[in-house]
Amino acid sequence: xxxxxxxxxxxxxxxxxxxxGHNGDIINAYVARPLGAGPFPGMIVIHHAPGxxxxxxxxxxxxxxxxxxxxxxNLYFRDGHGTPEDVGAKVRAAxxxxxxxxxxxLDGANAxxxxxxxxxxxxxxxxxxxxxxxxxxxxxxxxxxxxxxxCWGGRVVMSKEELTPNQPAAPIDFTKDLSAPLLGLFxxxxxxxxxxxxxxxxxxxxxxxxxxxxxxxxGAGHGFFYYDRAAYRQEQAVDGWKKVxxxxxxxxx
Amino acid sequence: MxxxxxxxxxxxxxxxxxxxxxxVREAYVSYDHPYDLPLEHALNIDFVNEAVxxxxxxxxxxxxxxxxxxxxxxxxxxxxxDERGVLEDRPLAAVSASCSVQS
Lengths: 253, 103
What we know:
The complex is a heterodimer of chains A (253) and B (103).
Chain A: E1 12-20, E2 26-34, E3 40-46, H1 54-65, E4 69-73, H2 84-93, H3 99-114, E5 119-128, H4 130-141, E6 147-151, E7 182-187, H5 195-207, E8 212-217, H6 234-252
Helix pairs in contact in A: 3-4
Chain B: E1 5-17, E2 20-32, E3 42-48, E4 57-62, H1 64-83, H2 92-102
Antiparallel strand pairs in B: 1-2, 2-3, 3-4
């Protein structure tokens, strides 16, 4: 974890950019990076199901504060514009963003990062909630990722009845294709994923000999990083962030 | 969201959003993460007008018990109105056309 000293210069730029996503579509994204020539590792930040909201902007800046170039693509760009909540409600009603489109957008974010002059050759990906599921899926389906962080990814394990046109396959079925180290953070009181589903997820990773570490937190449910929600758990969140940055130091530096 | 349990239905009505009333044409009903209610999952209803855009939205988020009570209450009120013969069971479009002709 990068620890700033009080006599150190610090600067950051954060702004909205455009990038090419799935099918070459132009979408917008929020980018935050430290000032300076770098080079810095990259981070793709997948917003959660409730939307491309303020928490995710702060999360993107947090990665920049710790010395990474972070990009958070607006996965709901094609669903219209308004407050993140209103757009998120529309996507919620539609059964979530389609997996294929999300993967295309995440691949586009990776390409955007890798085209920047201040990037090292390493790029990680982070997501919570549906974004946790998508981070794991990206780790299995996309090339060019060096570290995967899945926070309480719901529906990595899916029954046949849960499959939909937007999410036509269970990510756990792609475990054998996972191409980078995985960090998983989960709350033992979560209902999606349940502790049993996390156990299944872990068993599948072990079966295929994957490089991963899972941390399960007692006293925490779903979304325990979200300081603006009742689900926030201070002690578990602080430890979880330490795990995130230690994992990135190990795999992206 | 994480459960992806969501249905959409065409409706006719009006909803109040801030100081103004808006026409609502669709209702989204989901059991998933709410935005404001401090629960992991809730019964969420969004009354929207897709033709206007995502901001044309009147939202409520209910606990499971509240949602069940609401459904029962709506059914009871409709049944009572039906028994008393005051149920105006016709499409809003027809009512608007009728008002237009009378004026």
